[in-house]
Amino acid sequence: MKILVPIKRVPDYQAKVKVKADGSGIETDGIKWIVNPFDEIAVEEALKIKEAGKASEVIVAAIGPEDVSAQLRYAMAMGADRGILVKYDGFVDSDLAAKLLCSLYRKDSYGLIIMGKQAIDSDASQTGQLMAARLSLPQACFASKLVLQGENADVTREVDGGLETIKVPLPCIITTDLRLNEPRYASLPGIMKAKKKQLDEILPGDLDSSIELTPRVKVLKMSPPPAARA
């Protein structure tokens, strides 16, 4: 079984993010980029499944400009087998991300998709659900425990007031919550190995020439939060 793990590049949560003077976005010069922390949890869980002998390959995928390859290399340094970068310089909202990732999913045979429940920059928490709808796959969101049993996944998920355990058939889409695991660090040997691992770069048109790349969401203006009162 192959596992697909979509990841996203986000600003380091410890970085001091500044809004551009015209309000069109954030200043990216000199900013430190990282793998979205929820996606790191997804990578870790996929690696644990493979190490348990229940998966043959872990493939990480991302959408963005060419330098997003650094975050894919980090995921491969953690242990992912190969990476796929869908090169696109424009704004990607949850809907467009879902469309591109669905097209990527259809290009291969995957038994499971694991991804973060949300990205810490947009906090949208929509991509996994949109993918499940478009692919007609069962989904289990906000997973805090995952156990694969034969052709099914037993997923414990956090809900209002407690926990809920559900069984979903494979293939399915699972989105990860914070309590699922503690991601490993990329070791020095892992970083060296990642430099030699396969990283394919493709364009949206290579996936599906009919994909409409105009996002549904339009950012009108960004502004910093008001200064705290003394």
Structure description:
With 230 residues, the protein is of the alpha/beta class. It has one domain: HUPs (Rossmann fold, 3-Layer(aba) Sandwich). It is built from six helices and eleven strands. A nine-stranded mixed β-sheet has the order 9-8-7-10-6-1-4-5-11, sandwiched between helices. It has a two-stranded antiparallel ribbon with strand order 2-3. Strand 4, helix 2 and strand 5 form a beta-alpha-beta unit. It is globular, with a radius of gyration of 18 Å. The termini are far apart. The model has no long low-confidence stretch (mean pLDDT 94).
Query: What structural class do helix, strand and pairing data support?
Result: alpha/beta
- Give the overall pLDDT as a whole number: 94
In the CATH hierarchy, what is the superfamily? HUPs
Q: Enter the CATH topology name.
A: Rossmann fold
**Total domains, how many?**
1
Low-confidence regions: none
Largest sheet: 9 strands, mixed
Estimate the strand proportion.
Answer: 25-35%
Question: Over the alpha carbons, how many angstroms does the gyration radius reach?
Answer: 18 Å
Query: Treating each run of at least 4 consecutive H or I residues as one helix, how many helices?
Result: 6
Tell me roughly what share of residues is in helical segments. 25-40%
